[in-house]
Here is the input.
Amino acid sequence: MLKLIQLAARNLLRYQRRSLLTSLLIVIGVAAVLLFMAISGSFKQLMIGQITDSMLGHLQLHRRGYVASIESLPLNMNMAPQMVARVTKELQQEPAVAAVSPRIKFGAMFSNFTETTSLRINGVEPEAEAAVLPLLPGRRLDGTRDGALLARGELLVPVLVARGLKVSPGDTVVLIATNRDGSVNGKTFKVRSTLESATGPGGRDGYIHIEDARELLRMAEPEVSEIAVRLKDPQMLDPVAVRLQATFDGVKNKMGQPALELHTWERLSPFANIAKMIDVLTLAIKIMLVSIVLVAVMNVMIMAVYERIREIGAIAAIGTPPGRILGMFLAEGLMLGTAGTMIGVAVSLAAVWALNIWQITYAFGQQKGLLLAPALGAGDVLATAAIVIVVAGLASLQPAWKASRMDPITALRHV
Amino acid sequence: MSLIHAEGLTKTYRIGDIDVPAVRGVDFTIEPASFVAFVGPSGSGKSTVLNMIGCLDHPTSGHISVLDTDVASLDRRASATFRGNHIGFIFQDFNLIPVFTAYENIEYPLIMVQNWPPEKRRTQVLAMLDAVGMADQANKRPDQLSGGQKQRVAVARALVSNSKLVLADEPTANLDHDTAHRIIELMKKMRDQLGTTFVFSTHDPKVMREAEVTYTLEDGRMAANSGVTHA
Ligand SMILES: Nc1ncnc2c1ncn2[C@@H]1O[C@H](COP(=O)(O)OP(=O)(O)O)[C@@H](O)[C@H]1O
Ligand SMILES: [Mg+2]
Here is the structure.
């Protein structure tokens, strides 16, 4: 076995330039795949984090039909208090759930007494909302930035709207809303701070206290439009969603149909498609890597066998078992693949390390200074390495098999 | 008990629709520890006969036994094992493994063909290097050796696993006369020391004179004066 490895290594060194070029190809391929995975993965994680941690939460629960008409922010599709109590209890019993935040959403006119514009208002419980959206408090740009997310009578205004209407923290403004019955009501608020725009359609979202929302809308009982849920482990999104869906399917309305609908952030945000595209691209370049390794190693091994036909004839004549001849060439191909992979992994790790030292930032939409933090999971590295080495082995298999089946006389006579 | 026995040994190659008779019914018997040459002009069938003895090739008809084994009946794997265990080979163009040193080339059959323990292997390889006069060249690779030196290594490799029989197809064809003579002398010396049977082929009259038994082939048939034993 040791001799086999020694033989393979020496044969590779015998055609130094060729082995070098082939392993270089593998190095480049492995490094490209791993770096792409590290960078796109970091981008994806960051963007997903922005979406789930400053806007949507991981899961949202609505009354059935709400999401279909979410653009008009209907007030006649809220969940009744008993329903909210029941659902909240169920959610708090689910061990994967970290936090739950009930919201009232509605459209309102926002006025500085001279000009008016429309806003999408989220009435929230400040602690619950901050627990579901840990990045939201940090999006407050000015005014009172510490303490609770907001207090009663206070409003968080999206920065672009605040600028347009020349509103600053501390100013008094009015929100005017039409309630479910069609009657109009207004209420003054103090601007607590402006709110940085987030990725995606978050440019017109203002926040007030949920009790203020109920007052403004003159709600007879404490209804809720949506319940946002944060999970302890975002990786568990799909299984938890399935589990909760099953639970909430049991909640029926008067007609005996399921009364609630549960959506993951992926169903609510167009970014989920970008994330999927990234996954598809990753798969595509992995397939390219596999092809490169396959062609490069097979090419080299076919040449290696062809050049050594007489040598193969001689060792076969001497009585070397065919399996061992197969092993010789297989070892050579595997060694080539392994060497290329190991160097490729080392190069990628070094590059990832360097990228983290350089602190590369980028802008996405309105957000600037997002820090790229590429990272390589041990699982990804090992999986990629294993794929490349296995493919190198497979690529050597055919030439090695051919070598092992050679007729000694024919091989010895080969010129 | 003879070491090799052939009767009516025939080999016909078929190229397309044409039959090419390479060996046309030859009989011979080779005794243990003999030093035998198959001679004859190019194309007379020497290699074909040696290949059939070495179970590298199957006869078309006739019978051949080597060490009491009907080698024609062995399949691929069995004949590889048989060769590995009983027959050493010396080739015209040496066929050493280029990336291995002289030492490693001699050691090769003990590792890759048989499974000798390291200590026993080492003793044997060193003894062989010494016997063929290559002890001081042990760490050189084939490309650092002359033709004669390479063939000495090949002789050692053929003998290292204590084969009863060594087959050498034109072992001196790529060597000058003096070197050729010394290689044949070496082979004979090894036969004397170890009792190994050497069967080689040659078309060189000077070399054939060194053989103790000569079989002359002409057009795939045994010539009249075949099987002569020299002093
Ligand atoms: N594989 C083969 N296919 C067809 N003809 C062959 C083959 N091997 C040998 N021959 C023919 O058989 C005859 C004997 O060849 P060979 O045994 O190599 O002779 P020698 O070794 O005495 O020169 C020659 O005519 C040769 O052309
Ligand atoms: Mg010949």
Remarks:
- Chain A touches chain B through 23 residues (CB under 8 Å).
- The CA atoms of residues 36 and 307 of chain A lie 37 Å apart.
- Residues 2-50+273-412 of chain A form one domain.
